[in-house]
Design goal:
Elements lengths: L3 E7 L6 H13 L4 E5 L2 E2 L3 E2 L4 H12 L3 E4 L18 H17 L6 E2 L8 H6 L7 E3 L3 E4 L5 E3 L2 E4 L7 H16 L4 E6 L6 H16 L3 E3 L8
Parallel strand pairs: 1-2, 1-11, 1-12, 2-5, 6-7, 10-11
Antiparallel strand pairs: 3-4, 7-8, 8-9
GO biological process, one term: carbohydrate metabolic process
Protein name: Deacetylase
Organism: Corynebacterium maris DSM 45190
Amino acid sequence: MSGHLLVSISSIFAETRPGVQKLVRTLDAEGIPVSLLVAPRIDSDWRLSKDPETLEWLLGQKEEGRAIILNGFDQAVQGRRAEFANLGEHEARLRLQGATRQMTRVGFDPDVFAPPRWRLSPGTLAVLPEFGFTVACSTRGVHKLVDGSFLQARNLSVGEGFGSAKWWRTSLIKAADRGASKGNTVRLSISGRNIVDGKTVRDFLRAATMARERGSTPSDYRLFVSA
């Protein structure tokens, strides 16, 4: 039985948006849907609510049926650690309150959560259902919060606190090829910050198209919302 191919892009803000848009168009042309990981705040001075061009594009993507995933609250903390990697329930609840309120104000109501760098603490996982989330994604796999089931599928990332050097990209391509050939679900993600490098984008696309050619079914993370 073949698994699924899940591709996502994170770190979407004013400076990265043009490259993200181009990569999305390329993947769409390949028949590979893209999940967009969106945070209301990134770095020290960027706010989605104050970036009308990025907001307009993302709302348009939502209207066209694109999967929009909440990717944390304030990614500025990533310089020290991944935002939701070690939080207990109380602090996770406060950050999720802030994130969901800000996303709702600008027109989004995501039911899938993926923390920055995919690092998800037990405390965060425990409180996500309180905010209407039905799916959570981590480095190890995908959690269905409605029934407590878990699909083990390691995320393969370019950037986002992971590597982007040639040896890393080569390893990622091999891992995607190997996983798809075994019928496993293949998860690939790239940071918008790394899309500026043509070789990185080329290798990321190679990993995605290779997984598809090996039999993985292109999907997005909403697959698990109603499954």
